[in-house]
């Protein structure tokens, strides 16, 4: 479905879509459901019988991923709420509202807080509509310049983005062009649950094949944290899609299974990628590691870490990406998340002296590790980002995604990310097998490989990573309203305790034991 953008100077961004039948109307609604979610507002306007309720019904069913879900008209109850795995949807029909004061009885101002709000007859809300919203105007195609040759079911939809939604609607049209360019114009769009980032993903499903649309708009910098720089720059997080494209091409050049890039708009942050599938390296309920797959994943790391990998990567012709160094400053900034989020959530607040002691201990511990020859650190090398591809051979059996934050740093970091998975229980016996297999492969490639030094690096990177994740998962709950991450905290505390038990990390362990409750160290 191609969208034609009509830009009007000083006006919101608008798209016009000719919908030949009800199926096309449902298809447009379904795609919009992958771009809008909780805290968004979509208003529906048009004459009686233009299809507003049918459009809302199709959007709600697509959002629910349940084609048969019952969606009655809200004309008489005014509001109908739905709770789905993706979030809450509120469908409002304001036809019977006479005065805007009546909206207060409905709790109007609170409706959008954690819900996708669909509003028919939005003019009855007058100035109570949010500034940032999408308006969908529907009218019969018959009698218009676009109606020639179309049947009685044909409609024209005018999508208008108000406020910040204008930019999103612009991206919506760019994405449609990329999808068409990639040969997936007729594909069904299916929302994919993403990670903790602001990126979103849509699976494009066509007969016999599929692809992934990555929607990763450039993120504005956060407030200055240190040296006038925001957190994302201090810890070298990707701020647009160029780092992803660079590492994607670099991994493919190494003969590994990263997604092929079908089409891209680097400035808009939109990519259409090969769909590596849905089969991961864990299975069952609750999810547990499949040893064969974890062993294959550790072999990928061992192979990479024996190679002379480039620091400067190609993004596009005459566009390069130099991988940043995972330095002491970045690691300390990450660890501070534990001090700033996890400890306060447990009623623990530190004075400046104790914090400075913490930083001195970590600097002393990190310097020898960071002096080692660096390699690629993909940084999120764990079960959510590894796809199992049994039809491929050798190292290519492991599909790699979510590597845009890659840096140059210690080889042990990705090894511990896999073997001490933050989201899945990896039995200690399997962890030992994985690390031993990795060491064996490294020594086969280089008999001088420092096993003892690697063991210390593994423990230190594990402690750094666990400390950081305790802070991140607490922040996701406290700041972002994502409480499901808290269920992983006990596992991460166990990882932290086991890593700090290494004989060379006694000073660090003493600091943690003096600050954290003893139960946090029940390794």
From TrEMBL:
Organism name: Xanthobacter autotrophicus (strain ATCC BAA-1158 / Py2)
Molecular function terms from GO: ATP binding; metal ion binding
GO BP terms, alphabetized: tRNA threonylcarbamoyladenosine modification
Protein name from the UniProt record: tRNA threonylcarbamoyladenosine biosynthesis protein TsaE
Broad class of the protein's primary localization: cytoplasm
Aminoglycoside phosphotransferase domain ranges (all copies): 192-438
Classification via SUPFAM superfamilies: P-loop containing nucleoside triphosphate hydrolases, Protein kinase-like (PK-like)
UniProt GO cellular component terms: cytoplasm
Pfam families: APH (PF01636), TsaE (PF02367)
Superkingdom field: Bacteria
Family classification: Belongs to the TsaE family.
Subcellular location: Cytoplasm
Keyword tags: ATP-binding, Cytoplasm, Magnesium, Metal-binding, Nucleotide-binding, tRNA processing
């Amino acid at each position: 479905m191609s969208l034609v953008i009509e830009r009007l100077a000083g006006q919101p961004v608008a798209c016009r879509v000719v919908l030949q039948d009800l199926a096309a109307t449902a298809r447009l609604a379904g795609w919009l459901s992958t771009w809008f979610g909780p805290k968004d507002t979509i208003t529906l306007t048009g004459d009686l019988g233009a299809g507003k309720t049918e459009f809302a019904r199709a959007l709600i069913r697509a959002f629910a991923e349940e084609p048969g879900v019952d969606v009655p008209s809200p004309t008489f109850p005014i509001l109908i709420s739905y709770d789905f795995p993706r979030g809450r949807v509120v469908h409002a029909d304001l036809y019977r509202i006479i005065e805007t004061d009546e909206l207060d009885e409905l709790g109007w101002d609170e409706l959008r807080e954690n819900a996708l709000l669909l509003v028919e007859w939005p003019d009855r809300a007058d100035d109570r509509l949010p500034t940032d919203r999408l308006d969908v105007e529907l009218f019969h195609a018959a009698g218009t310049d676009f109606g020639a040759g179309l049947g009685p079911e044909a409609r024209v939809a005018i999508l208008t983005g108000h406020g910040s939604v204008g930019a999103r609607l612009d991206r919506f049209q760019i994405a449609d062009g990329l999808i068409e360019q990639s040969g997936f114009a007729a594909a069904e769009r299916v929302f994919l649950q993403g990670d903790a980032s602001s990126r979103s993903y849509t699976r494009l499903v066509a007969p016999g094949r599929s692809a992934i649309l990555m929607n990763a708009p450039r993120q504005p910098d956060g407030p200055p944290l240190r040296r006038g720089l925001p957190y994302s720059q201090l810890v070298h997080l990707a701020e647009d899609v160029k780092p992803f494209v660079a590492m994607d091409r670099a991994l493919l050049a190494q003969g590994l299974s990263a997604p092929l890039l079908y089409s891209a708009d680097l400035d808009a942050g939109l990519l259409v990628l090969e769909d590596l599938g849905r089969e991961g390296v864990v299975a069952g309920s609750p999810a547990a590691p499949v040893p064969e797959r974890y062993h294959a994943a550790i072999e990928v790391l061992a192979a990479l870490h024996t190679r002379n990998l480039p620091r400067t990567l190609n993004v596009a012709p005459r566009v390069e990406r130099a991988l940043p160094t995972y330095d002491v400053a970045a690691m300390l900034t990450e660890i501070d998340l534990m001090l700033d989020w996890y400890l306060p959530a447990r009623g623990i607040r530190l004075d400046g002296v104790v914090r400075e002691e913490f930083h001195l201990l970590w600097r002393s511990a990190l310097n020898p590790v960071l002096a080692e020859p660096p390699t690629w650190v993909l940084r999120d090398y764990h079960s959510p980002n590894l796809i199992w591809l049994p039809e491929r051979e050798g190292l290519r059996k492991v599909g790699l995604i979510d590597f845009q934050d890659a840096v140059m740093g210690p080889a042990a970091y990705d090894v511990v990310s896999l073997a001490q998975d933050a989201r899945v229980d990896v039995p200690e016996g399997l962890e030992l097998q994985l690390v031993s297999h990795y060491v064996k492969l490294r020594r086969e490639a280089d008999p001088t490989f420092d096993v003892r030094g690697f063991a210390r690096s593994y423990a230190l990177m594990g402690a750094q990573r666990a400390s950081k994740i305790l802070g991140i998962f607490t922040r996701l709950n406290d700041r972002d309203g994502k409480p499901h991450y808290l269920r992983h905290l006990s596992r991460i505390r166990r990882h932290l305790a086991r890593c700090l038990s290494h004989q060379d990390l006694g000073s660090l362990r003493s600091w943690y034991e003096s600050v954290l409750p003893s139960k946090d160290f029940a390794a």
